Amino acid sequence: MSSSSRFGFKRLWEKIAGERPTSRDRKRYYKFGKVIGSGSFGEVKQAVFLPTDQEVAIKIIKKSNLNDDENLVRKEIEVVESLDHPNIVKLLDWFQTKDKYYLVFQFCTGGELFDKICERGHFSERDAVPLMRIAYSSVAYLHSVGVVHRDIKPENFLFLNQEPDSPLVLADFGISRITETEDEILTTVCGSYGYTAPEILLRQGHGKPVDVWSLGTVTFSILCGYSPFWKFESMPEMLFAMQNRIVEFDDRYWWGISEEAKDFILKSLDPNPATRITASQALNHPWLTGVAASSHDILPNVRENFNPRKAFIQAITKVRAVNRMRQSIVSDKLSTKEPSSTPPVNGENNHNDETLKTESTS
């Protein structure tokens, strides 16, 4: 267990005399409340740590959903325990019972990134810059310690509280991995439709650059309210657009956006992971320094294009398309048989099942 993780656990338990209770005894120290998220892994409940009245979010994972591969949960714990960054959600505790795992996280009460933006009275490209700088900075930190997130999307950026200056934090490390070397290749088909890098979908092997691709799609979306590849109805069409960097900046929604923003997005959406800008390099791009951003109000466009219900329906439809197309489109790129899939173990705040099926190996 890392020193930062031990500090987090110590802080949670410091007002209780004696040693921290054993894993199976700790559940009684928490009062469980309403469900605030759910997915194929189980559910997330609001809870209170009774000794200090601290609000927490507890991710409850049914062991029966893990297909006898409890290593999935262990990997998530291993990843989050190793992290110590102000813009990454903290794991405060974890324990297990006979049939469930319980992962105790900071309770983020400020809402999701897009929801919070849509509540504003004004939102400009200049307002987007500090948010995306935090996003790229948090991912640069992850990469510096060997972690690949692999499920970067707007829903996984949460505000810690409801204050105007609330920190923005990155959550959901259910399919993240710790890499041992800089050139380690991961092979899992994973992520969320519309935000997943092409090298994952094509099973070419992947690493840290996939997170930058996902950040590029988030940057695009935050400036106009829709995904850069939203209009493609089939997997072959979408993959062709990704591989050829066909990214359209529709004048109806992009006329007030700087050329530097577009250049920044295209560098993040470079189809070649070897030449794609890194998260740390991105922090020095002129757009993320803030000098080139426009103050033009883009909130009406973002609100018009961002419709959670429509996005949910489209996600479900397209995930079904992914499942239908996977064998005919993606498997042609493989010379070996795909290992059996296991349910994704992610989503502190997921409200749908748009995450692609994941393997348990890498």
UniProtKB/TrEMBL annotation:
Polar residues: bias regions: 337-349
Domain Protein kinase per the UniProt entry, residue ranges: 30-288
Keywords linked to the UniProt accession: ATP-binding, Kinase, Nucleotide-binding, Serine/threonine-protein kinase, Transferase
Compositional bias of kind Basic and acidic residues: 350-362
Keyword Phosphoprotein recorded: no
Annotated residues for binding of ATP: 63
Gene3D superfamilies found in the cross-reference section: Transferase(Phosphotransferase) domain 1
Family annotation (PROSITE patterns): PROTEIN_KINASE_ATP, PROTEIN_KINASE_DOM, PROTEIN_KINASE_ST
Disordered: annotated segments: 330-362
Family statement: Belongs to the protein kinase superfamily.
PANTHER family documented for this protein: SERINE/THREONINE-PROTEIN KINASE
Name used for this protein in its record: Protein kinase domain-containing protein
Organism: Smittium angustum
